[in-house]
Design brief:
By secondary structure, the chain is of the alpha/beta class. Helix content is 34%, strand content 13%.
Length: 189
């Protein structure tokens, strides 16, 4: 039961967390309806770890330590677990996500599962891209997805020191993304 909510500032606008104070059910993006009807505004301590998302936006945090309980189906849960395994600063394609969750050849279905992620940023669905490496569909809009990917790629130099900084700069300029599990990267339109 979603009984508590709290709003947090982000570079993209307000993010709305809903949960019961122990687990997070949803972290809604700006402009996306979040089910807060009947929920009480929570003290910051109820969502303290969610509040640390500011550290993510500042490049000081790459993962979160929270208990998640989104409303989901077993296949959605499997997809979101697979998305959480994509390393910071990396991406996978919808077809790679489909393969990882046991439905190879069903890239559209995998993309649809990913699009239903109710816990943005924390479950990093923004790391799933189109077959050509371009940012595709995102609940918060493509501009926010590009900004999240850019944020991670800019910090990737610190995370992946084996990569040459000129290659990283080129990927940032062209919005080319390193696609984990695939052998190619392509420029975004």
């Amino acid at each position: 039961m979603r009984s508590l909510h709290r709003t947090f500032a982000s570079p993209f606008g307000s993010l709305t967390a809903t949960g019961d104070g122990r687990v997070l059910h949803e972290l809604g993006l700006p402009g996306r309806a979040s089910p807060t009807t009947g929920a009480r505004r929570a003290a910051l301590s109820a969502f303290a770890e969610v509040g640390r998302q500011r550290e993510y936006f500042d490049g000081q945090r790459q993962e979160f330590d929270l208990t998640l309980a989104p409303q989901d189906t077993p296949l959605q849960r499997k997809a979101w677990q697979a998305v959480q395994e994509v390393p910071y600063g990396r991406t996978i394609t919808c077809s790679e996500l489909a393969r990882r969750i046991g439905i190879p050849g069903a890239a559209r279905a995998a993309g649809s599962l990913n699009a239903r992620n109710p816990v943005c940023v924390i479950i990093p669905c923004h790391r799933v891209v189109g077959a050509d490496g371009s940012p595709t569909g995102y609940a918060g809009g493509l501009e926010i997805k590009r900004r999240l990917l850019d944020l991670e790629l800019k910090r990737a130099k610190l995370v992946f020191p084996e990569e040459r900084s000129d290659e990283l700069a080129s990927r940032l300029r062209d919005h080319r993304l390193t696609v984990a599990g695939d052998t190619q990267s392509a420029a975004a339109p």
